Structures are given as structure tokens and as C-alpha cells.
Amino acid sequence: MALHRRRPLAETYGHAIGILVLDARFPFIPGDVRNARSFQYPVLYKSVSGLTAAACAAGAREFAGAVVDAARALEAQGVKGISSDRGAFALFQDDVREAVGVPVCLSSLLQLPMIARTLDSARPIAVLTDDADALPSALLARRDVAVANPLFVRGMRDKPEFRSAILGGKGTLDSDLITAEAIETVRRLQSEHPDLGAVVLECSMLPPYAHAIQKAVGLPVYDFVTMIDYLQAATHRERYVGYY
Amino acid sequence: MPVYTTEANRVAAGHAIGILLLDYKGPFVPGDVGNATSYDYPVLFRTVPKATSARVFAGDPELEAAVIEAAKALEAQGVRGISSDCGYFINFQEAVAKAVKVPVYLSSLLQLPFVSATIGRKRPIGVICANATALGNRVLEMTGLDLEREVFIKGMRDEPIFGSSVTGDCLQLDPDAIEAEVVGVAKRMLAERPALGAFLIECSMLPPYSKAVQDATGLPVFDFITMIDYHEKAAHRRSYDG
Fold first, then answer.
1. What kind of architecture, by CATH, is found in domain B17-107+228-235?
2. At CA A227, angle to CA A226 and CA A231, rounded to 5?
């Protein structure tokens, strides 16, 4: 092995991606961004004290300093990229990417321009979110999010299990029920717009259902996990050992 | 298991991604877009007849029908996405996306908007391609990149070994020698632009050297393979069992 140097602030080593998280507690099941088993490489979490979903919905500019500090702390631990557990972290995307040296993708919505280009611009894209009203409209208008394709944003607020388990925080979560609720939501959208081209799961608690949604509608499904995997792949290149 | 139906024109099943190829014969080493072992899933290749690099660079309108036909043939075999082995197939990106139902990502350059979103505003993106003169603003605009972003482009064509290996139909290729050239180019780019935020390797023959570029510079390295892997994962979601 080559010579290795100690990082002054690092407590441990080898964490691939740092993930900034809201000040919130839910059952984070496998597939959720806040379940370490959702990734095939080690991730490091850092929560931002006092930053809640409600604060994000309200704009949360007063948290910019705390979010930047948390991102810098992750970078000091040696992570090679930084993401988050909420699409609305896009509010801090510019603050954080200017403050750290590693690539930053705080919102799953940052994938939208890249996804849209793979489809004819007339084909709609579905955005599935927890609460459509809480998604700041300015987010979808950002230069790094906006697309030419029609976007249909659907929330899960009217779905009883999702509403009580995730928006209400009752402390338990029945993933079979939420699977059915998510499928129903996307299927309905597809029946209204049969030329739907892709599904983007904005919410970090929805990736556990990506597989079931894809099976139901037969479309590519993008979410926080696809984005974080992509970031990890580009920051940890491997040698090819195939044959010729 | 569900009930499956015979698809009339399908030779075999299970190919994840279809890849359009230039009408060009070269030694495609592991890591090259044209080498099947570069992927963890099965891919299906299809050469576009008479698609020379010159015609693809120029986006020759007379080639469009052949590109579309090849893409449709891949779709008929059941692939869930279509890519290519030359970044300048971007000239046919819109036409192909209109002609098929599956996602289409013909150029590694289509990653530029995302790469740009993840790094500081003033940091250039380093693009390493084969032929830098063909990569102008017209092509960058087609990717959707915000043109305020500085893109620092270097071609490999002036490097002696790479240059002689890809001129005409290439007969043999020394990957170690080319790796040294690519790493040399990447290091010189970083010396000229110390604020560089990421590399994007445009050419489909260069991903074999992406790891070496990353080891030498410490920067994220995007290329055809990162793009194809990304879209393949979105097209084949797995269930979680953590």
C-alpha cells in the first residue's frame, strides 16, 4: 500500500458518501435514504438540528449556515460526495456546493434535466412526493431542475397509511399498505397520461417502493438512491478486469 | 412467475441496454463501451451501417434514417434503454428519442447538466475527448448545459500513441501507453485550471483509463459507463432486503 496521511478531523475512514438529514425520526425501512443498508457502500449521516420538513417548506434560509457547517463536517470525515434525505434541501444546494470541494447533490430533483433529455420533450414525467403542497414551487423553476417536458407532481397526502405513518409520524409504518398506495397513485397518473415517460420519486422515504412501482407501470424509476449510487460510482472509479 | 408471451421478432431475451456503434473496427478493451465485459448486465450492440465518425461528427441528415432504424431494431429486441459508442451521436439524440419508447442517451455529454449542478459555479469541468475541434458550443448546447459554466476541453488526437491508434481502422492498441497519455493530459489540465471540479471523459474508448485519471487527480470522473450504469439501474429496480 502507498503512504497514507491522517485527516486532522476524521474519526473513522472509508465512508463513501455523506448524507445530510432533517431533524426527524421515522421508521427508516430498507430502501429509505436513512437506512444504511440501502447502499452497497458505507454512508455517513449528519442531521441538522432544528431543521424540519415544515421549516424547509417555509424556506428555511436561516438554516443555511448550519447546513453548510454539517456538510463541511462530513467532508472533513473524508466523504467523496454529499447528498441529503429531502428534495427541499435544494434550497441549500448553492450554499453547500460553493462551500465544499466534493460534488454535492442535495435534491433528487437535480436528476430531472438529465432524465428529460432521454425522452421526447412532449412526454410527461411523474414526480411523486410526500406532500405536493409542501414542495416549494421555486424548486421546480430552478435552472438545474427545470425541464421542457410536462411535469405532473403527485403527493401521497390523501393515502391513509402514508399520511399517518410519514406525514403524521404515528411511529409505525406498514410497507405493504404504502406499496399499494404508491402503485395506485402512479397507475392513475399513467392512465390519465398514457405516454408518461419516467417516474421520479422526490421523497427519500419512497425508494423502498421503486421496484413495485416499476413492475406496475413498466417505466424507468429514478430517486435519491439512483442519484447517490451514480455519485458514488463517479467518485470511486474501478479498474475494468473483463476480457477481450 | 407471471405468464410470458412470445415476441415475434425477438432473437433472445434479457438484454438490458442496446448500444449503437459507429461503422468502425477497433480493439475494444475492457472498459471500452464496445466491450461487453465493461457492464454488469447484458448489452446488445448494433452497428449503424455507413456511420463513419466524420458523418456522425457532422450530424449528416442522410444518416438519420439508418440511426433510427438501428435503434428501433434494438428496441424490438427488448432493451430498456439505448446508448451509443460515440459522443457525437448526440446529433441524433432528439430524432431517436422521438422514434422509440425507451430512454435514449446517445452521448456521454448528456451528463454535463448534472455534473455542473453538483460543483461550485466558478469551477470548470474538464472534458477529455478524441477530437477537440469537433466539440463546440453547438454540441454543448444540445446537452442542456448552462453555457455560463466553463468547459475546458482537451483532445487526445495530438497524443502520439492514441492519435496513431485511432486514425483509420485501428489494428492494435497498447492500453498502458494510452493510460499514460490520458493521465498526462488530465494532469496538465488540472495544472492549467487548478479549480477544476470534475472530469467528463467523452470518448467511448477512454473509460478504461477513468480510474487512473481519478487516482492522479482526486476528482470525480464521469464517462459513458457511469451514464449507462445509472440509467440501467433506473430501468431495473431491485427490491430491498436490508
1. 3-Layer(aba) Sandwich (3.40)
2. 120
B129 is catalytic: no
- Considering only the beta carbons, identify the residue of B37, B105, B237 that sits closest to A243: B37
**pLDDT tens per residue, range B150-195:** 999 999 988 999 988 876 666 788 999 999 999 999 999 999 999 9
Residues A132 and A75 in one domain: no
The model's pLDDT over A131-170, given as tens digits with 9 standing for 90+, comes to 888 887 788 999 999 999 999 999 999 999 999 998 888 8
Residue A175: inside a domain: yes
User: Mind listing the pLDDT tens digit for each residue in B52-73?
Assistant: 999 999 999 999 999 999 999 9
User: Across the strands, what pairs with B200?
Assistant: B127, B222
Separation between Cα atoms, residue A213 and residue A219, nearest integer Å: 8
Residue of B nearest to A108 (CA): B114
What tens digit of pLDDT does each residue of A111-140 get? 999 999 999 999 999 999 998 888 877 889
Cα–Cα distance measured from residue B159 to residue B149, given in angstroms and rounded to the nearest whole number: 27
| Domain ranges within chain B, ordered by starting residue | 17-107+228-235, 108-222
The CATH number given to whatever domain includes residue A47 is 3.40.50.1860
Choice among B203, B205, B213, B221 that is catalytic: B203
B86 catalytic? Reply is yes
Total tally of structural domains belonging to chain A = 2
Under 8 Å between Cβ of A76 and A9: yes
The CATH number of the domain covering residues in B108-222 = 3.40.50.1860
Count CB pairs under 8 A between chains A and B.
Answer: 152
- Contact criterion met (CB below 8 Å) for B39 and B14: no
The CA-CA-CA angle for residues A113, A119, A125, to 5°, reads: 65
Identify whether residues A183 and A126 lie together within a single domain: yes
Mutate which: A215, A240, A241, vs B, most B CBs within 10 A: A240
Domain limits at A28? 17-107+228-235
HSE value, Cβ hemisphere, 13 Å, CA-based, for A66: 16
A80 contact residues in B (CB cutoff 8 A): 220
This complex has an ipTM of 0.96
Do A174 and A71 lie in a common domain?
A: no
Distant-in-sequence, close-in-space partners of B9: CB < 8 Å, separation ≥ 6: B76, B77
